[in-house]
Write a structure and sequence with these properties.
Blueprint (H helix, E strand, L loop, with lengths): L8 H6 L2 H10 L3 E5 L7 E2 L1 H7 L7 H6 L20 E6 L5 E10 L5 E9 L1 H46 L7 H25 L7 E3 L1 H18 L3 E6 L5 E3 L1 H18 L5 E9 L2 E7 L7 H4 L17 H11 L3 E7 L2 E9 L1
Parallel strand pairs: 7-9
Antiparallel strand pairs: 1-2, 1-5, 3-4, 4-5, 6-8, 9-10, 10-12, 11-12
Helix pairs in contact: 5-6, 7-8, 8-10
The structure holds adenosine-5'-diphosphate and magnesium ion.
Adenosine-5'-diphosphate (ADP) binds next to helix 8 and helix 10.
Length: 347
């Protein structure tokens, strides 16, 4: 194809047709020229990489795998303007290209379409992720607000139910009142756990001793265990101070201990142990429960996954978040004799 060179003389001397083709092959975009009969008289290296060697095939076959021209092909429409057109193309391999086309008329007045396309798959994915994260943040914020607001009416209803439950002429309905109150408490429990999830995650870590946290928590854990006739055994080894968020670590221990207690029969022991393992502070919660089945193990920490009738399925998810924020790791060892949750904090 001959064309008039509009560039200065010195460029014409240096650059020949072959060099122009080589230059086009170096471009990161695909470039192709479509003839009025839908053949592809020119394509660059990237085009061939994406669509294969077109040979004598028609463009709609090469690009789309059709056996007829694309219905909206500019070649079919008698477009006269010189405005470029653009669209997005998804290839069979799933890559997305931003394609630009414009008419190109050669000296014999034949009208071609010059097409270029650049891979925008990664850009698209990032855009999609950003909008999704934005949406998630918005939903989380709204949900936290709503969850908080729901508590007030719940508290009111619970108060009135308790009051009515005490009335002597309503004693026959005592069971119903208790059931309703229990259900409200359960709802409140879910909201509390949910709110601790959406809490601002940048709370400070403070250098302190894990044993101290366990000791202050001790009366609460013992009281909890007593109700289920479980004995808590504390085995606190000498450990270094580490960066901890006291509130979160309390929540972590409570959740794990609670799970341990709930997994055991009366009369068993639950051990809370701390020790150093090379340069890690280890917290081990060792129960004598029935162990965790593999299919349950695979789902631990999935929100709302629970095998308990009155469970929320949020406990371990919260633990996982807390562990992550402390750069710690969780290992679980389980058998029919019991389960141990190891939390390893870096020093
Ligand atoms: P929930 O306690 O409300 O069910 P969790 O997230 O705390 O929610 O626990 C999810 C599930 O993991 C439990 O329902 C239980 O099946 C299992 N699980 C957790 N800890 C233990 C444990 N120590 N022993 C046996 N099963 C456990
Ligand atoms: Mg739990």
């Amino acid at each position: 194809m001959a064309f008039e060179n509009p560039y200065p003389q010195y460029l014409e001397q240096k650059i020949d047709t072959k060099m122009i083709f080589s230059l086009l092959d170096e471009l990161p975009q695909f470039v192709c020229l479509l003839a009025p009969d839908f053949s592809i008289p020119y394509y660059n290296r990237v085009f061939k990489q994406i669509f294969g060697d077109p040979g004598q095939k028609k463009c709609y076959d090469v690009v789309r795998g059709y056996n007829h021209p694309c219905p909206n092909c500019p070649l079919l429409n008698d477009l006269t303007d010189k405005e470029p057109f653009s669209w997005e193309l998804t290839t069979k391999s799933g890559r997305i290209y931003s394609v630009n086309g414009r008419f190109f008329t050669d000296e014999t007045n034949t009208r071609y379409i010059l097409k270029t396309g650049i891979d925008i798959t990664d850009k698209k994915k990032i855009e999609y992720d950003i909008t999704r994260i934005d949406r998630m943040n918005l939903i989380a914020e709204m949900a936290a607000g709503i969850a908080h607001e729901i508590r007030n009416p719940l508290t009111t209803v619970k108060g009135f139910l308790q009051m009515l439950g005490w009335k002597s002429d309503l004693q026959q309905y005592q069971d119903y009142y208790q059931l309703m109150i229990n259900e409200l408490e359960r709802a409140n429990c879910i909201i509390t756990e949910f709110l601790s999830l959406t809490k601002n995650q940048t709370e400070d870590l403070e250098l302190q001793n894990l044993n101290t946290i366990i000791q202050t928590l001790s009366p609460l854990i013992h009281a909890d265990a007593l109700q289920s006739e479980i004995t808590i055994v504390e085995e606190l080894g000498e450990i270094t101070d580490i960066s901890l968020n006291e509130k979160e670590v309390r929540q972590l221990i409570l959740n794990l201990v609670r799970n341990g207690i709930e997994a055991m029969e009366a009369g068993k022991d639950l051990k809370v142990k701390t020790y150093m393992d090379s340069d890690e502070v280890v917290l081990a919660i060792i129960d004598q429960g029935k162990g965790i089945e593999p299919e349950v193990l695979a789902k631990l920490g999935v929100p709302f996954f629970t095998t308990k009738e009155a469970g929320t399925g949020l406990g371990l998810m919260i633990c996982k978040n807390i562990i992550k924020r402390h750069n710690a790791k969780m290992d679980i060892v389980t058998s029919s004799k019991g389960t141990t949750f190891y939390i390893r904090f870096p020093v």
